[in-house]
Amino acid sequence: MPKPRTTYVCSNCGANSSKWIGRCPSCNEWNTYAEEVTVKKKEKFLTQSSSARSEPELISQISTEKENRIDTGISELNRILGGGLVPGSVVLIGGEPGIGKSTIALQVGLSMRGFKTFYISGEESSRQIKLRADRLGVKSDNCYILCETMLETILATLHNSSPDILIIDSIQTIQTETIESSPGSVTQVRESTASLLKYAKKSGTPVFLIGHINKEGGLAGPKVLEHIVDVVLQFEGDHNNMYRILRASKNRFGATSEMGIFEMQGNGLREVLNPSEILITNHDEKLSGTAISATVDGARPLLIEVQALVSSAVYGTPQRSATGFDLRRLNMLLAVLEKQAGFRLGAKDVFLNIAGGIRVSDPAIDMGVIAAILSSSTDRAIPREICFAGEVGLTGEIRPVARIEQRISEAEKLGFTKIVISSHHKKSLTHLNPHIEITFAGKVQYLFRSFFKK
Ligand code: TYD
Ligand code: MG
Known about the structure:
The chain has about 450 residues and is of the alpha/beta class. It is built from 12 helices and 21 strands. The strands form 4 sheets. It has a 9-stranded mixed beta sheet with strand order 6-5-7-8-4-9-10-11-12. Magnesium ion (MG) binds near residues 101, 102, 123 and 169.
């Protein structure tokens, strides 16, 4: 029996040390070291594998033709994965508790027709999973449930019944006998993932791993977890809101710019195929303080409603608050308005909200934010058929943004009659013949002059 070894492992990056350290020298995080007692049993096949030889292949002779993709039964998920599931790939799905990771995993398990799917849960009982499946209302004869946390037992079961798709909910509950530390610890997570990866590559079975996230929003467990898997998908969204965004933050088989929007309903997650139509509320009457921005998230154009409320400050220090938008950027835009357009907002409360509970980081939303603020401040509504796409610089100039043609065509598709963009795009858009009126703006003053001046 090998002697137990006590090591201290950083729960953030996975670095280890023989003694406890307050601050991790590798990732500079404080108080992340935790004690782990490991008894690593000698692997039997070590001598065998060292004697086995593998032949190198000429790169020009490696065939790439037959990379067939497997349909997951959820078209948004297929798109995020880069066109479907790749055999033998390991997909890690991360997200906050209660966001819908288990729901989407079970939906995949139930909706993949013609595939034998294995849903291994270490968190819920089979009865709970059955209740959830009833709630989802999808019937399947190919979905098997196993409630097990021991990696060796799982691998033995897999060996006997070789499923086509494997789902593990969650990787933090799985533990291996070879290491004597508590489940969820860095070493356990790392070893279990490595073994499952080995299984996936050897058998060609795609594996979905569900992962918890830590309080900073990163995937719990060491960074190495993200390094070893093929695809990392992050579930984002607001609990109070029904929309959820699934985003690829790493994808060895496709673009990471892909994202999909889902709506949590009473019977599971439903794909939102026309997000722009949902994110824009249709008011009949004109309301001041709202502006529509033509943004792009990843590769996807999204028309989003920006809502602003500017009111006289009740307390000495005016409040500024932003939901779905960076507060520092809001402060910067307010400063630009003050300095460049002579707008005195210093004594006003400014509240900003992005409709639908979505977080936007695309700088093209700047012009929409400014327009919404000006609209609320002057109490003049912007006609509903107008949308904006442009970044605002510190000097007050409207800067060009990427994928402008995509934004224009999305606005056109949704029935907008006018889009305001940066005048820097004038030259590059000469070949375009859109049915939408394009207005070029050079400075923020232009917005004020054309829409809000009495
Ligand atoms: P769940 O998938 O259990 O979250 P996670 O595995 O990420 O922790 O999602 C649970 C939440 O989703 C819970 O608050 C209930 C809600 N929900 C619905 O609104 N509709 C449904 O059909 C299901 C299955 C769950
Ligand atoms: Mg869960």
